[in-house]
Amino acid sequence: MARPWNELGRYGGVGIDLVLAILLLGAAGHWLDQRYFPGHDTGMLVGGALGVVVGVRNLILAARRMQRDIEQAEAKDPLARRWTVDEGWLHRPEDAAPPAEPPDEPPI
């Protein structure tokens, strides 16, 4: 990905979107409860549930956009898909010393 700051701006606020959807729709439901249905919390509960649905929908859409962007970046750069590991720190079996044989114990 050539522009990491672009992706950060595009996808960095996804969690805030979820929280704001829940809070704003819950607050709208609470306002409706106070204004039209005093003594009931149904509007707030419905608004909060609707906020969860809208927030999760936005998360799914953002994940799809992110996946599409990753696939487009990989299509432009075929080497971006390749994972490389620096094997210099790995333990190689051919470099290992032979296992030490246990000392012979005299029979009793």
Main features:
elongated; 108 residues; mainly alpha
Account of the 3D structure:
The N and C termini lie far apart (70 Å). This protein has a domain at 14-80. It is mostly helical and 108 residues long. The protein contains 3 helices and no strands. The model has no long low-confidence stretch (mean pLDDT 81).
Number of helices: 3
Shape category: elongated
Radius of gyration: 29 Å
Q: Provide the succession of SSEs.
A: HHH
How much β-strand is present in the residues?
under 5%
Mean pLDDT over the full residue set: 81
Question: Helicity level, as a percent range?
Answer: 55-70%
Low-pLDDT windows of residues: none
How many β strands by DSSP? 0
Largest sheet: none
Q: Structural class, judged by helices and strands? A: mainly alpha
Q: Distance between termini? A: 70 Å
